[in-house]
Amino acid sequence: LYSVMAIIDLALGIYGFRLLKADWALGRKTEKDSVLRMAVITATISCIFLMVESIGIVTQYSGILKDVEALDRVSIGSTILGVIGYFLILFSLIHIAVLTIQAMALAEAGIVATRERWLILVWKYGALTVFLSVCAVGVLSVV
């Protein structure tokens, strides 16, 4: 299962790099940067991290490594890469969600709506808001 996930992450990472190449070419042609470039970069990097994590898990459970210390290093390394990869995906999702909220506000009320204070705060502190919401849900689920 993890070897299949590594192949899927590799394919998504290659697609992300091709998308970035097309985005950079379009940016050079139009002399404007894409607002989705950061989300695509983080999603592509997260695919690479998750691919390496999947390869580490496959290496752990395949019996290739017999040394306990090497297994521990692979386990710790794959866990760290997995956590970083999932946080990068979360960052991409938050980035796209904030851009979607801005687009809906722009379509509904025009350019003045994008200058409203709540929308600026969501853009600046979106990740912190999601983190605090997850912590609150975690605390409430324990109680």
**Structure annotation, total helices:** 4
Mean pLDDT: 80
Uncertain stretches: none
SSE topology string: HHHH
Largest sheet: none
Distance between the termini: 35 Å
Quantity of strands, as a count: 0
The percentage helix is over 70%
- Structural class call reads mainly alpha
Tell me, briefly, the overall form.
flat
**Approximately how much beta-strand content do the residues carry?**
under 5%
Rg result: 20 Å
Describe the structure.
The protein is mainly alpha-helical and 143 residues long. It is built from four helices and no strands. The model has no long low-confidence stretch (mean pLDDT 80).
Short structural summary:
This protein is mainly alpha-helical and 143 residues long. The protein has helices spanning 2-30, 37-62, 68-109, 117-142.
Summary keywords:
143 residues; mainly alpha; 4 helices; 86% helix; flat
